[in-house]
Amino acid sequence: MSEPAISTRVTDLLGVDYPIVQAPMGYIARAQLASAVSNAGGLGIIETSSGQLDQVRDEIRKMRDLTDKPFGVNIAQLFVRDPTEIVEFVAEQGVKFVTTSAGDPAVLTERLHAVAITVFHVVPHLRGALKAVAAGVDGLVVEGGEGGGFKQSRDVATMVLLPLVCGAVDVPVIAAGGIVDGRSMAAAFVLGAEGVQMGTRMVSAEESPVHTNWKELIVRSAETDSVMLNRWGKPAFRVLATPYSEARERDERVAFPALDQLLKVYFEGDLDAGFAFGGQVAGRIDKIEPVATIIQRTVAEFRGAMRDAAGRWS
């Protein structure tokens, strides 16, 4: 039996039952995973950071076959050559929600609004949040440094960043970084969020297209088993601890592996070929489960945690 819907400004804007968004991991956030998230009541996101727009177009078509629920697309601006072209591409697919990241929110927000697309911008610090709000975004994804993927050299934990941003802006906020279950979702809401984003938790899900070796690495990792690399070379990135990543942990500048190496990690399970992205929450994930199970349990735990907190301190 499904949990009752949760109503926040995030669910109102996105048209979903639960304010749980799947992170837009390159090459991973495609129809197989994103449709499972949308069908479970959250919001699946299709990535464009791979730059493979023909394949992304096909993945969006697959989404239409796999779900009749809302979904969104991420535009990672670092990889965008022509802002007008990417906006036209997304609009042509009938997408109504976009997260933008890794760039100036002023570049795309007005263009996306002109084609009736809701825009949330991903921010790693207060300065970026204020800049995004000034650019007219509809909401923010506030991403703490404990999450996996590309990061600021001076990363800020979600516990510090989230209340700082929520206290300074009026737009709805989705919390990212450290979110893995109902208790962490409840903590994010207490700190001011109205939605959460999950990355590492979704990479480990049954419907995730990555190789089982990566999923099992997440399951067996401790909370200390992530490594921040390239802190001084920029961009920094957080990956799971493997012999490959630990051998480069003390290097001031780390060369990013070639695409063929990364894809060997992603889809062949060769953990010695490159980096397996993952956040500190890997230490709280102990099994590979279907997306629907993850989302339903998260929502139930969230409600229980909020009730317990209210009863304990009222």
Q: What strand line-up does the widest sheet have?
A: 1-9-8-6-5-4-3-2
- The low-pLDDT segments are none
- Helix and strand succession? HEHEHEHEHEHEEHEHEHHEEHHH
Biggest β-sheet description? 8 strands, parallel
What does this entry show, briefly?
By secondary structure, the chain is α/β, with parallel strands linked by helices. The protein has helices spanning 9-14, 31-39, 53-66, 83-92, 105-114, 126-134, 158-166, 182-190, 200-203, 212-220, 243-246, 259-268, 291-313; strands at residues 20-22, 44-46, 71-76, 97-101, 118-123, 139-143, 149-151, 173-176, 195-198, 226-229, 236-240. Helix 4 (83-92) runs parallel beside helix 5 (105-114).
Question: What would you say this structure looks like, in words?
Answer:
The protein has 314 residues and is an alpha/beta fold. It has 13 helices and eleven strands. The protein has helices at 9-14, 31-39, 53-66, 83-92, 105-114, 126-134, 158-166, 182-190, 200-203, 212-220, 243-246, 259-268, 291-313, and strands at residues 20-22, 44-46, 71-76, 97-101, 118-123, 139-143, 149-151, 173-176, 195-198, 226-229, 236-240. Helix 5 links the parallel strand 4 (97-101) and strand 5 (118-123). The longest helix is centred in the last third of the chain and has 23 residues, at 291-313. The protein is globular and about 45 Å long. The model has no long low-confidence stretch (mean pLDDT 94).
